[in-house]
Amino acid sequence: MTVIRVNPDSVRQYASAAQQQFDAIRVELQGLVNDATTVRYFGPNSVDFKNHCGQMASDFGRRLAQDLGQIAEAVRSSTTAIATSLGGAPISMSVNGAPIPLPTVPAGDGSVEIDTSGLEGLKPVVARHIDAISTQIDAHLRNLQNTDWQGQAKETAVTAVSGFSNAAKNLASDARTSITSYIDKQINLVLAGDR
Question: CATH second-level architecture of 8-89+114-193?
Answer without folding.
Answer: Up-down Bundle (1.20)
